[in-house]
TrEMBL record:
It holds the Pfam family Ras. Signal peptide: none annotated. This is Ras subfamily protein. It comes from Acanthamoeba castellanii (strain ATCC 30010 / Neff). InterPro entries: P-loop_NTPase, Small_GTPase. The lineage of its organism: Eukaryota, Amoebozoa, Discosea, Longamoebia, Centramoebida. It comes from the Eukaryota. One of its GO terms (molecular function) is GTP binding. Gene3D superfamilies: P-loop containing nucleotide triphosphate hydrolases.
Length: 135
């Protein structure tokens, strides 16, 4: 069973608004775990995505640059708890140097399976006409 996912990439430079999140089934918020403010900024973005998006939006948080930081399990567990506080559906940490395409494929597969749990998220994109209909 295949599901096509429409993936949009945004930067954390600005907070998303309703137009960014209209008709979106899943959002992946990626952040730099080596930054002191990375998680808090990402979660601020995630809160806004949760507020502006659908009530059953699949929201994933991904900590990047895992290879640059020596983290204890407690740090990862604490980050997961904070993410759960803003109702993040999936949480993971990766290193671009150590992650294989198989690992990332599995992660996006988890997102697709979550989307598949909510058939109401399978809305086809709305085509907005550029010209008024002919009378």
């Amino acid at each position: 069973n295949a599901i096509d996912l429409n993936i949009r990439v945004f930067t954390l430079c600005r907070i998303p608004d309703y137009n960014d999140l209209f008709n979106v089934a899943a959002v992946v918020v990626a952040y730099d775990i080596s930054s002191n403010h990375g998680l808090s900024e990402a979660l601020r973005w995630a809160k806004e995505a949760r507020r502006e998006g659908r009530h059953n939006l699949v929201l994933a948080a991904v900590g990047l640059r895992k290879d640059l930081v020596t983290r204890k399990r407690d740090d990862t567990a604490a980050a997961k708890q904070v993410a759960i506080g803003v109702r993040v559906t999936l949480y993971a940490e990766y290193s671009a140097l150590q992650a294989s395409s198989r690992t990332l494929t599995k992660f996006f597969g988890r997102i697709a399976r979550r989307v598949a749990e909510y058939p109401e998220l399978w809305v086809a994109p709305i085509n907005v006409p550029t010209h008024p209909p002919h009378q």
